[in-house]
């Protein structure tokens, strides 16, 4: 037989906390292995009687239950919400099921019965299954509704604490239960859900109500027992009573008996109490009346609120009436109602901005209720008599002060002008308010009132009133007129950057001109202002539009694109002159446009005049020259070289030769008159040369420049044409005198190299970062500058270029050397170092918050200040670098700060750690304010400090004392709140002290120790953990649930 070690409940409870020290030493008290782990019961071999009753397995072990449950719900066909048989497993019904599974964590499987009903199997934990059931009923099943009526006082028992009972009931019955609110007189509870769920919910609610009726019966019986001494005459036949009827009959008899007893012994008195004081006698929810009844046994009857009677009736025993009457008068007179006369328009000034003025009074007298009634010239005060008197005197003083220095006025203005008085975004009214220091109330549109109220300083009120009346009068005289102006003229009227419309507005300053948005495509222009000014402005603009219509005639003139610049002229002189003289608008196409059309806009006659002038300019620019056609090719030159040079030299004229072989001699020249004439002369001169003189050939040899920038060639007339390289020979053709001049010009273009001496240590500065310095000089002087390699250590820099550029380049290079030498000298002066010894504890103060102080010193004295590193040996040395006089000034500034810090003292105070957070404030705002105010430094202990209450204050002696006093005052103020909060929290903490104390008393666990275990003897071996016989498995593993409620799809 195999055995399994099982810990019983008794042994577990006994040893759960570990063995106590005295048990460890006494082995006789240890349980045996068989006591702690009883063996499994053997299967009965005979049919005689049951096995031994004392077996631990048959009496102690309870069967294990799975936490996963499965329930099946059936939805009849008539109650199904989705009845489309063709979409079973698809559509909205499938989406709802998947949503329920995701929301509740339960697994759903749906199937359809023969009667077309829906069967739903839900698997999962109990809570998930119940939630899924509720969702299924509400979303897959049609809903019905019903009502159940129970006494109103029983509704709270259906709801339960925090609504838990109601939630449980809804989950259990899968229904939605709606209980009327406490202020609703109805006693009907509405239930919605399935028919089955409705019946269950009604049954449960009626059971709860019946239970409360029984509890009421018990209370009546107890009352009967308490009143037995007074109810000797009461006779109840219990034999004829059954259930609730007996209890009700008993309660009625008891009530009659009590009433009879009280009637014989009670006395009634009536007193007069002011109607306004009745509520103080009643108290909140009638508590005061109940307290008087409990203490004196006297009932106090108060007339209903809708009654005008002030008579209060007291009923009770004669010897208790005096005490009860005293309490009634005490309660009635403990509170009083008073009123203060104050004009209603002053109420908001008494209240103050956001209730600030009123808050000061209510904070001092929290029991006093202050009521402002709109439209009434009084303020009602209610509360304890003494407090009311004090508040009344304060408010009367405020009213007297306000009346003496404030006034108001009311003016009548037509509501249609109100928005104009307010202005765009409140601009007008805000200006009047700020200028005259008054408050102006303009009624909203829904009030349809024409009264505007002005309140404030008397003089300001009168000035604001006068200004508002003037504005209103001006608006009453205003007129709005719409002009129809074609939208195409709007931009012309407005002008460039609004220049023209500004002129119109300056001419008619009282008229507001509004143009429509261009996107609206509207032709309506609105004018608003005084009638006469609007009429004048209208006539002026109509005249302007008429002129624009007359001047809108347009003419297009085709002009060669290359002549447009000639039409414009130098600096726009030509086009400007034409525009001014003809009074037209001339638009030329953009430079990147292919259009040749120039558009002229204006009066018809003016447009024609401008067109003729532009065509005349073009005509002046065209000239024909007769040159024999046989010379055309020689005049054009190779690839048009000669003719291009003439066009460029003559200001960009255009020369057109006829087609080759056409036999036409006419050559056309277009361009400015002067340049055309110049080009004509050059062409004719060149043609004469070609006809009269043969060409003179001249050869010139120029050797190439080497890579180092030095020229090793000469310009000479070679004796032997075959000797030089072909690439070094330049051939010049033309007249002899011109060829000689060209040779001299070419000689001037040959580069020359000179040497400039520059100290080697300055070379890298001349080159600059990534060669930027030397490139700049080469570009500026149009030369090549060669700096020797660093390993040569040479002072010679070579400069190569044209002779005319070399002198200027040399001067620039020497000037740069002088600048660099001056910079070196300045750098040496700026490198002066000064060291100052300062105690390291002052370093943070010298640096300042976020480096503010040290940055100011560095900037002010133009020095660099270096503090020692953490691992530096000289922690008290501060190094200052800069000009000598600046470094000395910075040292003096630091020394002044140190001297001031040495005068400061530090004092430690005990400030309760519970108020540290409030003193520091949000993001340290509170403590920074204190430090700025008292010019001190306050340090709070870090978390884990030995004394968490120790706070250090550093500063000048007198300021430290003031700061400490302020901190202690804050501590006293905040501690009151801390103590109050802690006292509240004491009631909210769960009571677990007993368990905690027992856990502390319990020693550390020593493990579970048993005697006579199998492994302690040599006769038995330890059980094999891998053996299925020694450790059999409990059931088969559960297969994973399918993801879809419909099972696998069928294809």
Total number of strands: 35
Secondary-structure-based class equals alpha+beta
Low-pLDDT stretches are 1-25, 43-61, 226-247, 705-719, 992-1001, 1035-1043
The tally of helices reads 39
Strand order of the largest sheet: 1-3-2
Cα separation of the termini: 54 Å
Compute the CA-based radius of gyration.
56 Å
Q: What does the largest sheet look like?
A: 3 strands, antiparallel
DSSP helix fraction:
40-55%
Average pLDDT for all residues: 76
Measured by DSSP, the beta-strand proportion falls in 15-25%
Oligomer: single chain
Shape: extended
Descriptive account of the structure:
This protein is an alpha+beta fold and 1051 residues long. 44% of the residues lie in helices and 18% in strands. The protein is built from 39 helices and 35 strands. A three-stranded antiparallel β-sheet has the order 1-3-2, with helices on one face. Helix 9 runs parallel beside helix 10 (243-265).
